[in-house]
Amino acid sequence: MSSWLYRREFLKDAGAFAVSTALLVSNSSALAAAIEPSPPRINTVLYDERYSDCRDFADAFVERGATPFRTGRDVASLWHRSLREHVAKYGGGLAGLTPYSDLVVLRSYVAELKLGLMYEGSHDCRTSAGIVHQFRVRGDGREIGETLSHSNAGWAWSLAAVLGRTNANSVFPSSASEVRGSRTATGHPGYLVSWVFA
Q1: Helix 155-164 with 142-150: angle, nearest 10 deg
Q2: Regarding predicted confidence, which is higher, 87 or 30?
Q3: How far apart are CA 71 and CA 2, in angstroms?
Q4: Nearest 5 degrees, angle CA 198-CA 176-CA 45?
């Protein structure tokens, strides 16, 4: 066989190798994207309509496409009327800023849909002029802490914005953090909790 034919065969084989390598890399990237869990989108947000902090929290999620549900002071009834059906149908995460009692009730209900608590924060202004935020995160919680300490009156909206773009799998429970912020005049009953189930 002449050197020209060898060169031709070599170039043909090299071209085929380059194409198959490109396809392999492309397919492995797609496979990696399929295997790597993406952050669960928070599709549902609960809030106590009596408090402006809770309404602000819900508004931030609504801007990102979540469906809001007012607790109406009876989260158990809400769950059995429409909330369970909505969460089961649309999936994703369920977030809220509510009194602690609502979180206690929901924790037992969401277990039937195999949802777990991914983030929990408390927002307490019962004993000071300011507000004390405590939250539990796994890994680096600096963005949440900075948001809560610097957002002052807009803390609830800012917290929701951070939680809305945080991978819920990276949150809860490992270390606790505490920061202090400003209290809103009418937006807070004294003690509220924020949470994400996913």
Answers
A1: 160
A2: 87
A3: 83
A4: 30
pTM for the full model?
0.73
Estimate to the nearest angstrom the gap between the alpha carbon of 101 and the chain centroid. 21
Angle of helix 52-62 relative to helix 155-164, nearest 10 degrees?
30
| Inter-residue long-range contacts of 100-108, CB under 8 Å, 24+ positions, other chains counted | 100/191, 100/192, 100/193, 101/75, 102/46, 102/48, 102/71, 102/75, 103/193, 103/195, 105/75, 105/76, 105/79, 106/46, 106/75, 106/79, 106/197
Least confident segment among 107-116, 171-180, 188-197: 171-180
Residue 160: HSE in the Cβ half-sphere, 13 Å Cα cutoff: 30
